[in-house]
């Protein structure tokens, strides 16, 4: 007999049980469901909707069910559809008639909404901790590499010299925003839907403020139709998750490139690499590639939930049961990726010498030569032209700018004086970037200091 079987004259079709059920996946919510039910039972007792004694019996029953689930003693049944009705049925089986009172002043619609919010809230805690660890790793890597000079790229062409610490601090900024984004998402979802009933509220004098307090919500949903209808908080969470994956995919792409022989900037630890089944020499950066690949999966989840919610009329529709699959998958993928990414970058070898060597070619000091001419009164556009010609000359003569003699410099402009020789050294070029937020060591040290203040504050 179904919990809702009263108005039915026939059994549901055989295939319905499987098709309609969410228990294969929503059993993940058992803890949150029981937590919500305990708070609800407490509230019912306290408000005199059921007796104190009944309330206590229900709570005891629910606590036992939780223990049994945790000890693997419970087998969920597909014919009870979802986690809510599985637990309610178990409760009734165990404590009898009084168990049937738990669902007073509640619907599965507000029940599932509260469960998902409790679940995401808990997962955001874990994800933000992982992000926090990652931020600390970026800062510590940065500290180690304020003097590690490397090419900075645009269009993947060598552009200007930077230091690796500066590169890591760029990602620090991105992941710091991601960290703030998930916490921000928590603020908006930490509002209580329970007590909304099916869509219109209930006829009972429930105490929703009490429920909010019990369950740690900041306030209650003001409109019960909104409370049961929307999943914008799921979308917002997956969207923040997509952003995290997008950032991870960019570092990963770089690390894949950097592990190639063509770059040779890093080497992944054996523990985070794999070999080839045919080519004995291969060592592949699979972790970085997989994270890059899994980004597509999380974006897919975002489109999935956006499409489920598109055009849904108010209030609850069964379509919404499908929200959990992209949500759970996003949470698991994010946690795995953040964890393994962190281990991978902490264990990789950074080949400083190769990075430095790479700064020799590519005329990355060309802009600095132009800036030098500007300091001598040449308008920037003309200086650009002069240095362009110098680069052509260097290509023809197979030289770098820093290999030119003063006499060669002066062939292009009489403004060049002997200090130009020092000014075009790659290290000098890097550290002469004096503008705020630039790559000079001094500025990167400032960024690190700001990051450390952030760690202390939060
Ligand atoms: N399993 C359902 C879900 O996840 C619970 C809510 C069902 N509500 C209903 N009116 N059928 O969405």
Automatic annotation (TrEMBL):
Its EC number is 4.3.2.1. GO terms for biological process: L-arginine biosynthetic process via ornithine. GO terms for cellular component: cytosol. It catalyses: 2-(N(omega)-L-arginino)succinate = fumarate + L-arginine. It comes from the Bacteria. Pfam families: ASL_C2, Lyase_1. PROSITE patterns: FUMARATE_LYASES (PS00163). It is an enzyme of class 4 (lyase). Keywords: Amino-acid biosynthesis, Arginine biosynthesis, Cytoplasm, Lyase. This is Argininosuccinate lyase.
């Amino acid at each position: 007999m179904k919990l809702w079987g009263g108005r039915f004259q026939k059994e549901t079709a055989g295939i319905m049980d499987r098709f309609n059920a969410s228990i294969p996946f929503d059993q993940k919510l058992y803890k949150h469901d029981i937590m919500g039910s305990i708070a609800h039972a407490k509230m019912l007792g306290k408000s005199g909707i059921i007796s104190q004694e009944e309330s206590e019996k229900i709570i005891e029953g629910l606590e036992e069910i939780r223990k049994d689930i945790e000890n693997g003693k419970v087998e969920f049944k597909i014919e009870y559809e979802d986690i809510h009705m599985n637990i309610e049925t178990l409760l009734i089986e165990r404590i009898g008639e009084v168990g049937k009172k738990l669902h007073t002043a509640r619907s599965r619609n507000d029940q599932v909404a509260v469960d998902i919010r409790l679940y995401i809230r808990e997962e955001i805690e874990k994800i933000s901790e992982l992000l926090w660890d990652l931020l600390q790793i970026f800062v510590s890597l940065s500290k180690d590499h304020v003097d590690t000079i490397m090419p900075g790229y645009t269009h993947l062409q060598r552009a200007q010299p930077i230091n690796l610490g500066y590169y890591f601090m760029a990602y620090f900024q991105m992941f710091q925003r991601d960290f703030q984004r998930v916490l921000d998402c928590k603020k908006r979802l930490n509002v209580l839907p329970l007590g909304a009933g099916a869509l219109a509220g209930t006829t009972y004098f429930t105490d929703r403020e009490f429920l909010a307090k019990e369950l740690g919500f900041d306030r209650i949903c003001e409109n019960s139709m909104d409370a049961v209808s929307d999943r914008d908080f799921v979308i917002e969470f997956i969207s923040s998750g997509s952003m995290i994956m997008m950032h991870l995919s960019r570092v990963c792409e770089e690390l894949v490139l950097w592990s190639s022989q063509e770059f040779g900037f890093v080497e992944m630890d054996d523990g985070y690499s794999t070999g080839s089944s045919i080519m004995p020499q291969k060592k592949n950066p699979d972790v970085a590639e997989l994270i890059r690949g899994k980004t597509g999966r999380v974006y897919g989840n975002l489109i999935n939930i956006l499409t489920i919610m598109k055009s849904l009329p108010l209030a609850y529709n069964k379509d919404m049961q499908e929200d959990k699959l992209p949500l759970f998958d996003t949470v698991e993928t994010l946690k795995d990726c953040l964890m393994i990414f962190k281990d991978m970058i902490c264990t990789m070898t950074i080949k400083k010498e190769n990075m430095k060597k790479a700064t020799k070619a590519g005329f990355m000091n060309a802009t600095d030569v132009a800036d030098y001419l500007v300091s001598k009164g040449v308008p920037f556009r003309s200086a650009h032209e002069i240095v362009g010609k110098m680069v052509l000359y260097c290509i023809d003569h197979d030289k770098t700018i820093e290999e030119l003699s003063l006499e060669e410099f002066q062939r292009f402009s009489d403004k060049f004086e002997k200090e130009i020789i020092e000014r075009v050294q790659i290290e000098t070029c890097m550290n002469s970037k004096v503008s705020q937020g630039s790559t000079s060591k001094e500025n990167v040290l400032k960024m690190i200091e700001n990051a450390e203040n952030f760690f202390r504050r939060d």
